Each structure stands twice: as C-alpha cells, then as structure tokens.
Amino acid sequence: MIPLSFMNGLVVAVLGLGRSGKSAAKALMASEAEVWAWDDNEDRRAEARAEGIPLVDLNNIDWREPVSLILSPGIPHERPQPHPIAAKAREAGCEIIGDIELLGRAMPDASFIGITGTNGKSTTTSLIGHILALSGREAQLGGNIGKPVLEFSPVEPGHYYVLEMSSYQLERTLSITFDVAVLLNVSPDHLDRHGDLDGYVAAKCNIFRRQSDPRSAIVGVDDEHSRRIHDHLKATGAQVVVPVSCLGRVAGGVGIEDGVLIDDMDGQAVPAIDLREVATLPGRHNWQNAAAAYAACRRIGVDAPVIAACLRSFPGLAHRQEHVAQIGGVAFVNDSKATNAEAAARALACYKPIYWIAGGRAKEGGLAGTEAYYGNVRHAFLIGEAAEDFAASLEDKLPATVCGDLETAVRKAAEHARADGEEGATVLLSPACASFDQFADFEERGDAFRRIVATLRDEIEPAAGTAGGSS
C-alpha cells in the first residue's frame, strides 16, 4: 500500500466506492487521515461499511472541512452535468483529484510510464509491463487496468509505475510528469464528458504536461488528430518525440511495413520482428500497440532484440480479440472491450467470414467507420438498446437479426456459422457499444460470452461425438 502521510490528520472526502475508491479510502485511513466516504449506490455503501470504511453523507456536510475530494474517474465534475456533490465541493474551493494524483504526490521521485489513446491502451500497457518484467526490470501496472494504484508498493529509484490513463484520469492528475508518455490514437469518444472533440484532445494531451528532454513522447501518427499533436510537440522541442505508425516506415520512429516492425529510432531502419508471427497480436491496430510498446521500452534502455523476444511471448489480453473456443470448425472470439465503432472496425478487419454480435448502449456516431469491413461479415446479430437502430442502419448493407440478449445472439450466430460451413468462420463479439444497458461493464459482458460459449461447446461436442460413434 502507498503511504499517504501528507494527509495525516486531515479530513478527506471520497466519492465513489468501486475498487479504486475503496482502495483510496483504505490507504488514507492507514495514513491516519479522517475519511468521509460515500457512494450513491446503497449496495456499494454496504460493502464499504462491511470493510470498515467510514461513511458520511457528502450531500450534507460543510465543504470547508475536507481538504480534498477524491472522485472516482466515472463521476463527472464538470460535463455533461457535474455530480451534485462535486459541484458543492468545487463551489467551496475544495480540490477535486483522483487516486493517481495521490500516488504522484506520495512518490515524487518514482519513474512513470503513461499510456493513453482512444483504443489500444490496455494492450499497450500490458505489453510494456510484459517486456519490463521479462527483461528483469521492476514494474507495477495499474491505473485504468489492473490493481488500483494505491495498492502498489513503494518503489526504489529505477523502478517503474506503468499506468494506463483514461482522459478522465488525466484531467485529475496534476503532479505526475511522465518519463515516457504514450499517445496511441485519437478518435471521437466520451464527448459528453469533454464537451467536444477539442476538449477530449486537450484531456489526452495532459499526458505530456511538463515533459522536457530526456523525457519521451511516443505518438501515433496514423490519425489526423494524433499527427497534429506529434507535429506540435516536435515543433516545440521540449521533449524527445518518437513517432509510431502501423501503416509503413516512419522517419526517426517505429513503423510497420508488411507486418514487419522497422526500428528507425537511430536512423538505421532496422527490421526488428515480423509481427505476423505473433498470434496474440492480430491486425494492424495491435501492430501499432506493439510499435508503441517497443519505442517506449527502447527509450528506457531495453535492448531491441530483448524487446522482440518479449513480444513473441506475449500471452494476449482478456476481452481484446480473445480466442475463446473452436467448436465444430467455428472460432469464437471475445472482443467485448470494443466499446466504440473504431475498435470494432479493427476487429472486423482481422477475420472472414464473420458472424458479428454487436450492440449495447451506443456511442455517438453509432456504427460509422465499420462500413469498410462489411464484406467480411456474413450476418450481424444485434443486442441491447442499440439493436433496432443498428438494424435500421445496416438495412440493405448486411443481413441482420435483432436478438435482444447476448445468449440468443451467440446461439443464433453459431447456428448460422455451422449451417454455412465456410472455412475460417468466426463468431465475433465486438459490440461497438458500451455495456451498461445489460451488464456492469465490458468485463462482465465478455465473461458472459465465455460462459455461453462453454455451455454451447458442452452441448455441441458430445452431440458430435455421438453422431460420429453411430456411423
């Protein structure tokens, strides 16, 4: 646990008692702060009370008393409407921060690697952690993935905290200057929280705050918004800027050409690894993730051949194009983390023929951006709140069936795939939507997909064995 001695004896409010909120409350309590914790959800309050966290209704306090409000990332403090408690705190001049800011204040001399972007953050963060671990470097992973950051151990000089940073977390993290900051890509997302695309881009750019040479900015240049950010940083000249691309070689950076990672960071254009041979990193989007992880690890001194060897052994990540099963010649792939159209499009580019399960709570733009890959899709099976709207948008483009719930969709998709009997058939859960209409989060949705597929396998494979035995 991270010691927060600078909060000793002070009143600190905590709003939101999910994993990170409870972790923050416990770390503050261990450092003898006076914790006032609250959650709008009665079940979460009961869980916190059972774990010994003191509850105070933050709707009815004197906001001149707390020095800080530790706000969970998903709770808005500005747009689209500030949470009423956050509004009261701000009106009283109480600072609003997150648990990662507490980590930064507690560990000012630690080394930090931060990863952000609309898509690919978790895979890139995990890749960097995997490379550092196998290359003998001490690193702890967290932030928007893995364990809450205040459950980390304090680090010695030369050891790393590797943090996946959402735009929400970056807005509330002021004290950390990242030794290596990675921006993978930018496409419209969370616009209700940031007001517009400019607000979202500004939040992402906080990852480069106060960087100076020899600190590094690793920036994807395959989309217009990220390319502009790269060009601005390069022109400013404050830090070392390394471009990465999955669309070809890139001068002074790391690019991908015909699946081969080309390292031009030293101006030598050296082929480092053929990523087509790494089964756990399918598709150009994962090649971009690998290029960014490669560049980040090279900047902190990991040798290129070591990085290449580590990439080959990467085990992959749950809910990100995760191969769940092969049943009767049909592959089942869990890409529940694809919560927007751009992420779904990246998965649609990787398989053929696809029996596509999509839907949930739609993001702005719906399925826009997936159209280029409809030739890979045989049939769409639609679930959740977006099902009817998606069916209308797919009319005359793709055969589509409104299924409502995930189990119905999986069963219908499997039935169609087996009936068609095409080689390479893949039932792909890549929803292009948030999960909150039917599930707590994308993990719960992906876990449900896994369970349904496991049940389906138990039903189909014994039946296939019986049929074979009687012939």
TrEMBL record:
Location, primary (coarse class): cytoplasm
PROSITE patterns, alphabetized: FOLYLPOLYGLU_SYNT_1 (PS01011)
Annotated binding of ATP, by residue: 117-123
Protein EC: 6.3.2.9
Keywords, alphabetical: ATP-binding, Cell cycle, Cell division, Cell shape, Cell wall biogenesis/degradation, Cytoplasm, Ligase, Nucleotide-binding, Peptidoglycan synthesis
Superkingdom, natural source: Bacteria
Gene Ontology molecular-function annotations: ATP binding; tetrahydrofolylpolyglutamate synthase activity; UDP-N-acetylmuramoylalanine-D-glutamate ligase activity
BP GO terms, sorted: cell division; cell wall organization; peptidoglycan biosynthetic process; regulation of cell shape
Domain Mur ligase C-terminal: 319-433
Keyword Ribonucleoprotein: no
Catalysed conversion reaction: UDP-N-acetyl-alpha-D-muramoyl-L-alanine + D-glutamate + ATP = UDP-N-acetyl-alpha-D-muramoyl-L-alanyl-D-glutamate + ADP + phosphate + H(+)
Gene Ontology CC, one term: cytoplasm
Cellular localisation: Cytoplasm
Signal peptide as annotated in the record: none
Pfam families listed in its UniProt record: Mur_ligase_C (PF02875), Mur_ligase_M (PF08245)
Keyword hit for Cell cycle: yes
Residues of the Mur ligase central domain: 115-297
Pathway terms, separated by semicolons: Cell wall biogenesis; peptidoglycan biosynthesis
Known function: Cell wall formation. Catalyzes the addition of glutamate to the nucleotide precursor UDP-N-acetylmuramoyl-L-alanine (UMA).
Classification via NCBIfam families: murD (TIGR01087)
Family: Belongs to the MurCDEF family.
Record-linked PANTHER family: UDP-N-ACETYLMURAMOYLALANINE--D-GLUTAMATE LIGASE
The name this protein goes by in its record: UDP-N-acetylmuramoylalanine--D-glutamate ligase
The organism of origin for this protein: Ferruginivarius sediminum
Record gene name: murD
